[in-house]
Amino acid sequence: MLKHRLITGPILSVGIIGLLILDNTIGAVSCETCCIIQSGILLAILALLVTPLAAIEFGAIGDGLGVRSSIPTLCVSLAAWILFFYFMPGCESTSTLAIASSIVMGSFFLSLVAIAKSKTLTGVVAGACYTTMSAAYLGLGFGFLLLIRREHDALWILGIIAIVKMCDTGAFFTGCNIGKHKLIPWISPGKTWEGLAGGVITASLTAMLLAYLNNTYLPNEPTVSLGYAAICGVILGLVGQCGDLVMSVFKRDCGLKDSSAVLPGLGGVLDVLDSLILASPVAYWLFQIM
Fold it and tell me: How far apart, in whole angstroms, are the C-alpha atoms of residue 288 and residue 273?
């Protein structure tokens, strides 16, 4: 498994780095009809492409839980959330709230209709709730990354990913070497307190390095003090680990080790995104008060 992880991880990392650099080169482009290609277009496209895989994985988790879900509605709802966040900055506050509320209500209604089509009503409401909230949970996680991209260089998105994933890496290797005290064994048997400490320290050091690079090579971005970066690294590392545990609860509850096997050595799309889902809104607010 480690061998596959060491192959799949770098390939995935290079792909994401290339996409974010390309997204930077596109920037805001005006066309002849005066429409604007907003920052983050490639990030939004990537999210839309990932949507079907994530929906299938949520559907499989639902099956394991004995909860009926609608994968097509999950896809539509996820896409709606992504498009909402991509275009939202141009909306008034009242319109923004109205659109978000409409997505939630529309997702719930479509889920009810889709699941009830089987003419068996047992579990329809539970399935509609699961479908609606699963789509919102992942869609909002994607959405905050799009909001950050609207206000900052695409490399800041890469920085968030690096901090969270370096925390995972630091926790993995520290736990494997010196981990003795289990963190929450009934949720994630492999996690240890030593691993968590190693991961958080790694995340903090990564954030400080990224702050230095930002202050040196990105003059148009806000200056980030090394002290604040260290604090952000600790917070994002801890929140990322919480996101990982949340997804572990989903998987352990339905008896799955990984959400799928689409990424050899890494598991499924949700296994890769789990720590980012919770970290992205926290990162957004940390950047707002910076």
Answer: 23
